[in-house]
Q: What sequence folds into this?
């Protein structure tokens, strides 16, 4: 019950007036970011990160800063559902699955029901995930205290392989995106020997590519370019939520407890094993359709079809923070940006945080409970306001978002060169999306490339070049094996399917 | 090996001419904008950028264009320079206004 005590202390930290105010500011900004095209959780947090540099230097300020940023993340998770349901435009990739049943519901004039169901199940998913974080993360951190370089490399390997195994894109595309990320991460100073790599004599590249700029360009500018193809106007259903609709929907929701339970489980799993919120929402939607009594009617406006993806997306988005705070390995691009924030504020993410920065860690965990409550209140009361923002003509909102992105990339390192890089990354992001290459592995590879490399090389120094070190102990061997299993999962699942197909109908036929 | 092969992609048009035009109408000004930031600072170029979009794509009357772009950029100035004390790149115009 040590956790409960620590959590109570965390609540004491998080419940200070300034932190509560920051929570609401964060959630409102987050929903705004989630609603606007081109601004999402990852790049929204990236843009606002430089603004917290000053805040984090005051005592207790790092906790306030992480509360602000993580609440932006929760808000963005909530906000994605608004545009999916009302406008049939997913504001965030993880709310694509919400459009399948959410938009039909809105067309039937039941937008309020769909929105309430989406928000409430988001809340449930997030809540389950926070409980998981509360009790699981001290355990994981305890384990991780004894980690050496081989174990850390195994964790990184697991992260990368999980992307290949769980991504809905073809595995080769994921690998290609990831390798490009590694190449970009390698630019700059070699972390072990200090020599320069791939800088081509340019002083701008001495410090390498900043992943925050990459995130802003890839997700922000790329998204706007893609949205433009759809035309310049948004057309959407009217949003009306009143207390009656909310209460009626809440009465209906307990019926789907089994769906939410499954969705939370899928979400937590996908968040911790870094599959991310997007595949989690699709997977959960698929699972719900298979198990539901009237699965055939999914896609025509079933509340259950909104509950499943939203619960899973939030559970995954939230639990993606677990590996971030315990191991220093983010489970999603947004978690990666938050991790970057921690490092900039001078905190070393990883298991030691639980020992050295108790206030910070438990304040953050407590703020996850409170932030999601704040989020639920904000979205339920302010939906019409947020929907109105989308009615602002694109020719006004798009350049403003571009300017915000430019300012965001500039402030990362006070370098105009980064504004250039943002445009280049934007074009890259647009091409990636057009060709259906996943962006998340690229971003994670940029973020983790250097760390993965240095822990690999340290492990190699320890073992004098023997790869056997990754199987030398139980834990590290287990993680490496799991990673390889995930890496070859597309092949394995194909083999199983082929085997089954041969076993079942092949009985009477060809041998 | 079939599992690894890229799943049957429909042989569809990569981008339509109309769409490409729209995308370029944003991409080209953005590239020019990045250029401008280097020379005349972020504030003036942002006013020009927002104004250009509103006038060219949105066909708004001039006074609306001017109002929205100037007010937006002024809001950025207040938020970044005054609240958060984050200096943004400035050019000669800010110099004349003695803002840096």
A:
């Amino acid at each position: 019950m040590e956790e409960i005590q620590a959590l109570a202390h965390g609540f004491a930290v998080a419940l200070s007036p300034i932190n509560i105010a920051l929570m609401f500011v964060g959630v409102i900004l987050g929903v705004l970011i989630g609603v606007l095209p081109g601004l999402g959780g990852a790049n929204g947090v990236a843009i606002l990160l430089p603004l917290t540099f000053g805040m984090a230097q005051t005592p207790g300020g790092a906790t306030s800063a992480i509360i602000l940023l993580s609440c932006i993340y929760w808000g963005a998770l909530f906000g994605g559902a608004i545009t999916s349901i009302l406008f049939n435009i997913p504001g965030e990739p993880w709310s694509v699955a919400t459009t399948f049943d959410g938009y039909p519901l809105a067309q039937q004039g039941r937008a309020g029901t769909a929105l309430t169901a989406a928000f409430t199940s988001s809340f449930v998913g997030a809540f389950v995930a926070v409980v998981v974080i509360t009790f699981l993360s001290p355990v994981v951190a305890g384990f991780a205290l004894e980690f050496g370089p081989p174990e850390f490399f195994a964790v990184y390997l697991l992260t990368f392989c999980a992307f290949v195994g769980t991504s809905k894109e073809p595995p080769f595309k994921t690998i290609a995106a990831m390798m490009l990320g590694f190449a970009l991460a390698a630019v700059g100073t070699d972390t072990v020997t200090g020599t320069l790599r791939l800088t081509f004599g340019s002083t701008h590249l001495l410090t390498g590519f900043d992943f925050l700029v990459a995130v802003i360009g890839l997700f922000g500018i790329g998204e706007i370019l893609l949205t433009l193809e759809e035309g310049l106007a948004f057309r959407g259903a009217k949003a009306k939520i009143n207390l009656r609709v909310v209460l009626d929907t809440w009465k209906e929701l307990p019926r789907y407890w089994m769906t939410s339970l499954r969705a939370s489980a899928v979400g937590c799993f996908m968040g911790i094993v870094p599959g991310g919120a997007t595949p989690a929402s699709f997977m959960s939607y698929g699972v719900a359709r298979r198990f539901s009594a009237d699965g055939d009617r999914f896609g025509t406006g079933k509340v259950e079809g909104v509950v499943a993806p939203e619960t899973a997306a939030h559970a995954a988005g939230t639990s993606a923070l677990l590996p971030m705070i315990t191991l220093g390995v983010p489970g999603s691009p947004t978690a990666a940006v938050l991790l970057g924030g921690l490092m900039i504020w001078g905190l070393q993410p990883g298991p030691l945080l639980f020992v050295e920065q108790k206030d910070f860690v438990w304040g953050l965990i407590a703020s996850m409970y409170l932030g999601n409550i704040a989020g639920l209140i904000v979205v339920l009361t302010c939906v019409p306001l947020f929907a109105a923002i989308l009615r602002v003509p694109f020719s006004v909102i798009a350049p403003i978002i571009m300017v915000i992105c430019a300012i965001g990339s500039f402030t990362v390192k006070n370098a105009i060169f980064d504004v250039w890089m943002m445009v280049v990354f934007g074009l890259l992001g647009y091409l990636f999306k057009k060709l259906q290459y996943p962006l998340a592995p690229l971003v994670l590879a940029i973020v983790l490339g250097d760390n993965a490399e240095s822990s690999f090389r340290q492990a190699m120094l320890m073992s004098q070049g023997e790869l056997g070190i990754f199987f030398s102990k139980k834990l590290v061997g287990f993680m490496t094996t799991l990673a390889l299993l995930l890496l070859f999962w597309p092949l394995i699942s194909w083999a199983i399917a082929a085997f089954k197909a041969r076993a079942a109908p092949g009985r009477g036929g060809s041998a | 090996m079939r599992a690894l092969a890229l799943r049957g992609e429909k042989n569809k048009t990569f981008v339509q001419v109309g769409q490409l035009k729209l995308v370029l109408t944003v991409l080209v000004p953005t590239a020019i904008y990045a250029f401008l930031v280097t020379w005349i600072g972020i504030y003036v170029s942002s006013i020009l950028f927002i104004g250009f979009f509103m006038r060219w794509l949105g066909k708004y009357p001039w006074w609306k264009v001017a109002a929205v772009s100037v007010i937006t950029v002024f809001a950025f100035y207040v938020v970044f320079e005054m609240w958060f004390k984050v200096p943004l790149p400035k050019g000669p115009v800010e110099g004349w206004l003695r803002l840096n």
